[in-house]
């Protein structure tokens, strides 16, 4: 679609007047339509980290306290999550924090802090268990310890978990050689000493603290250093925990969320002096970045030069860094890396690797210690901390995805699979709380929206996904829900950008699959094809029943062939694709299964339409599929014992005479019903019928595209939606109490623009909590 952020892409930032938390006015550089505002006041904040569940973590350096911010409101929560005894000299204290990729399932978080020890202060990295707003003090698991802080400064102290699943740690050179055989400042050779953990990037198994397999130092003459210390008495055997070395004070590093690779940049603070350089280094296994031999570009064999550096005349000490999430901010920022100097300036390194130091992104924010992108209800914001006591954020002016229409539907001859995080190289699980920009392929370029099938593959915990158009406001709706460890699919209509791309976010870390089924394109005037025609809903297959006129199909092994043309109101000609509700019913096996629908007599595509959870689980999904030459549809069943097929309607092809009806109009995704929060009608009880006249749809619409969700189910049962009673279609199934499930539905409206929902179950169980999200309508 042709909708973009309202931010203008200009080379030179404008001077913008902003309001501080105290109400005073400051003037500094910031690009147009970006806003910089105060979030919270915190005692000497260091690290800031976003938790996917709607909270943001901030560390207080010298109190040792972990604080929480409610992301939606920016309110600092009372009290603290953790209170650690920390050293407070110089640059010591509470320095680094990250959460586990599977934190929703295991509750693990990780902390880097300087602790008092018998012989002085040392640095430690520990794992803790987080429960609610509390990080349980007694749950501490020390992963690595006794990293020297002999002089109090150059502790570094950042921690992150890479996409390879290992824990990465930055350590500084301690300001003075812990071994005591070189000196301080430029004479300190600790970063080159492979028997010390100082001045390094460390990589550990995040569960045990053991050196990560594949680290560059191993074999004879190397040991697990663990907590042996960094002192004059430390043995000279090399440490297997080391990933890279030759760093002075790598205060912050940042990992790229836009790729499945473990890609990261390291911000290394330079030595004082007019000839010294502040560095950005790319994280490379086994790299020696040169300190204390040289700074900046050394061009020395065996040393790895920085990818960017700048002199003291430009800034004084590099601090924070963050990769911009692709598809979030204006296109100028895709592939970009923002980095800060402690003097208060932030620059952009663009996707081409260029930095315009004369045109900073942000200025006049002294003491920046850390920055992180935080996914707020409307979209991405850049949070940053100032050691003077402030947490602030930079936001951009997002516009909603503009409604589009009229649109015609164009069915792909065979569904394609443009994204599968399991098979990309390297594999690219979507991390909880992050977004991924996904290109749907050439078929979607120039389209306004896409019909996709989205699948979670074994999420680490209960989760949901939201899919929307890049560079627009994030909607408050969902497209897919899944329990932990299960494969779940749902169809969805999603607006796309001009390059045929979508943005996806998920609450927890998971594999994700996207199948492209068809696209919606501009259809002004009397366009013939791609118009939706509702049918009188009819069940044409229920394999549990004896064969007969309303149960006509043939089965050959795993393939089922269902004749559709000239049945259930579908004509024998003029059909571009049929719209079905298909239910897959698993057998007694506990193993998961899946189903693929495709044109009868054609080659099965590398896609799927629904997944079952095993053990008599029943799943439904909306399926849009072309007919084969004989007017039939093939269904491939894998661990699916029975199927139900209901005809909802069809899309016309280009042989049909132009008509005025059936073209599609996109809405901004709108939540019309949320029984949990009193929106629309209440919960759905057994045999209960509830009418709905969706406010986001004109009364003249013939049908709507809506996502129906149990949130959660009250027990075994199903919900159907139709223009008027009786409601005979089964749009959404549940097989037990407490399930959160979603399914897309194309639902006709009555002449007043209303539809009716009906719940049914074998017995009168607890009511279902119910959500309705409307994505668009048919004229």
Task: Describe this protein's structure.
It is a single chain. This protein has 779 residues and is mostly beta strands. The chain has 4 domains: 90-113 and 120-313, Neuraminidase (6 Propeller), CATH 2.120.10.30; 401-526, Jelly Rolls (Sandwich), CATH 2.60.120; 532-652, Jelly Rolls (Sandwich); 667-779, Jelly Rolls, CATH 2.60.120. The chain contains 1 helix and 53 strands. Strands 4, 5, 6, 7 and 8 form a 5-stranded antiparallel β-sheet that branches. The protein has a 5-stranded antiparallel β-sheet with strand order 38-39-44-41-42, with no helix packed on it. A 4-stranded antiparallel β-sheet has the order 3-28-27-26, with no helix packed on it. Strand 20 (264-268) and strand 21 (277-282) form a beta hairpin. The longest helix has 4 residues, at 103-106. Mean pLDDT is 92; it is low at 1-27.
Question: Helix and strand layout, with pairings?
Answer:
Layout: E1 14-19, E2 25-30, E3 34-41, E4 45-51, E5 55-60, E6 65-70, E7 75-76, E8 82-83, E9 94-99, H1 103-106, E10 108-117, E11 120-131, E12 134-148, E13 156-161, E14 166-171, E15 200-205, E16 222-223, E17 238-239, E18 242-245, E19 252-255, E20 264-268, E21 277-282, E22 308-311, E23 318-323, E24 337-341, E25 345-349, E26 368-375, E27 380-386, E28 390-396, E29 407-420, E30 435-439, E31 449-457, E32 463-468, E33 480-482, E34 488-495, E35 501-506, E36 511-522, E37 532-542, E38 554-556, E39 559-563, E40 575-585, E41 593-599, E42 610-612, E43 618-625, E44 632-638, E45 642-652, E46 664-674, E47 689-692, E48 703-710, E49 717-722, E50 732-734, E51 741-748, E52 755-760, E53 770-778
Parallel strand pairs: 16-17
Antiparallel strand pairs: 1-2, 3-28, 4-5, 5-6, 6-7, 6-8, 9-10, 10-11, 11-12, 13-14, 14-15, 15-18, 19-20, 20-21, 21-22, 23-24, 24-25, 26-27, 27-28, 29-36, 30-35, 31-34, 31-36, 32-33, 32-35, 37-45, 38-39, 39-44, 40-43, 40-45, 41-42, 41-44, 46-53, 47-52, 48-51, 48-53, 49-50, 49-52
